[in-house]
Amino acid sequence: MSVLELRNISKRYGAIQALNNVSLAIEPGEVVGLMGDNGAGKSTLVKVIAGNFAPTSGDVFISDQKMAFHKPLDAQKAGIEVVYQDLAICNNMSAASNVFLGREPTRKIGPIKVVDYAFMRKRSAELFARLKSETRPRDLVHKMSGGQRQAVAIARTLLSDAKIVLMDEPTAAISVRQVAEVLNLIRQLSDHGIAVVLISHRMPDVFDVASKVVVLRRGELVANKKASASSPEEITGLITGAIESA
Amino acid sequence: MQKKDIGLGVLIIVVGAIVYMRNPLFLSPINLGNTANLIGLFGLFAIGQGFVIMTGGIDLSVGSVIALLGVLFVDMVGEFGVPWPAAVAVTIGLGVLIGLAHGILITRFRLQPFVVTLCGLLIYRGIARGYTAESTAGFPFGSSYPQLEWLTIGRSFGVPHSFLAMLIVAAVMWVVLHHTVFGRHLCAVGKNEEAARFSGINTRFVTIAAYVICAVLASIAAIYFAMFTKSVQPSSHGNFYELYAIAAAVLGGCSLRGGEGSVIGIVLGAVLLQELQNLVNLLGIPSSLNFAVMGAVILMGVLADQQFAAYRSRKNTERALGLLQKQ
């Protein structure tokens, strides 16, 4: 059973064919490296999966059920979480507040609902422990390293029992040591049975964690194969078009 | 309480002590009562301004709203004999509408808060002056409204009710800001609107709500000011009040970049501003220098705060380096 299946997804912006007949299936716990040059359609594909907009044609299946996402919240409810490149987190808030941003737990004091800070801290501490991250719930995000921020963003996805996590360039702007941290986080997600779609330009990172590599070129899926059966050279060729398809 | 709030509190006490040493009248019941009244009046709308500033916006129309709604309120009660509870309801209702208009123009039409509320400042002042044909709106001679007066300008145990009203509003807004989901979302929207939107927060609603809160508190302040001055001169009533509110909010630790602030800080900011006004009066400084004193103290306060923060972070770095070297 695949957790996510795309069947013949196409997306047009006026005269531009951003995605052309893309089909793809992802198993639970699988880490898929989604690669392609700028403008190859990676972002469009991610936005279709995340429910930012509907495909012009084609179907999205989650756990073999056909889905029609009208807004990102629909996708979120179906178990799809996105970790954005510029990290959708607020610097002025604590790690715990960020993990729960947009879905704060409340408790009632008389007639008024107040934010349950104690629960937020406890639960996010558990999530950080699960991710084997040393992030502390009370720490302000603006004092954190890039890797810790990623941990916060990823802990958000655990909160909602996500089935699929889409990560847009999570290793683009951080130091080498932090990259290792983030790759570990991705492995943790995978170990918990969560599928990860890793969009990245960094070949070593993809080959480090991904079990499958998918290459898009000019809106078409030109490769979908096991990482162990491919090589960075081959993928580079596929991205640039030096190799037609594989 | 945040560190900034404590620093501000200390500053208030130090300034108070200095003024008291130069002029003991500072702590006389009459002076304290009068100052508390002014703190209440200005604190009411400064809290609203703080909420708007926390979203990263600004509301420049507050003073004009106070003038326009003051004129209308006085006219409704004094001229047309509308029962005062109805007049209060209408005034606050107008506040809601003004806030909604600002919020919708800013979120739906994507206009800048500065521009929208600057136009508001001009429009409301203009309407107030046009509506009254530049004449002062006042209550008829000899009229009295005991309940309304008790609520607005009355005192209990020497404490002005305007001050109590401000404390109640502050308490409610403190819970709203620091302990409700809305408060969390307000800080999130102010700091990183995109992140807030991606997190599923209705950012438009949050922003609009902040402007409505600001305008509603301004409308309540308008009633208190109108009752305090008893007559409203449409061209000068409430002039520059938005700047008092902004100054109080900024003194109280609200960042103009949004996302930061505390209700206690804003209230303390309003206290300090009135203390400075009082200082000018009590120390015999020509009242024409009023604004200059205020500006200088705010500037020094902000400067000191920044220097102190830089000093603290330097100390922290040194300590961390020291620990590293020991290892």
Automatic annotation (TrEMBL), chain A:
GO molecular function, one term: ATP binding
Record InterPro entries: AAA+_ATPase (IPR003593), ABC_carbohydrate_import_ATPase (IPR050107), ABC_transporter-like_ATP-bd (IPR003439), ABC_transporter-like_CS (IPR017871), P-loop_NTPase (IPR027417)
SUPFAM superfamilies per the UniProt record, alphabetical: P-loop containing nucleoside triphosphate hydrolases (SSF52540)
Lineage of the organism: Bacteria, Pseudomonadati, Pseudomonadota, Alphaproteobacteria, Rhodospirillales
The keyword Magnesium is assigned to this record: no
Pfam families, per the entry: ABC_tran (PF00005)
Every ABC transporter domain range: 4-243
Protein name: ABC transporter domain-containing protein
Matches recorded under CDD domains: ABC_Carb_Monos_I
Keywords: ATP-binding, Nucleotide-binding
UniProtKB/TrEMBL annotation, chain B:
Molecular functions (GO terms): transmembrane transporter activity
CDD domains, sorted: TM_PBP1_transp_AraH_like
UniProt keyword annotation of Ribonucleoprotein present: no
Keyword Nucleotide-binding included in the entry's annotation: no
GO terms for cellular component: plasma membrane
Bilayer-spanning residue ranges: 7-23, 35-53, 60-78, 84-105, 157-177, 208-228, 279-304
Entry's localization field: Cell membrane
Topology in membrane: Multi-pass membrane protein
InterPro entries recorded: ABC_transp_permease
UniProtKB keywords: Cell membrane, Membrane, Transmembrane, Transmembrane helix
Protein name: Sugar ABC transporter permease
Stored Pfam families: BPD_transp_2
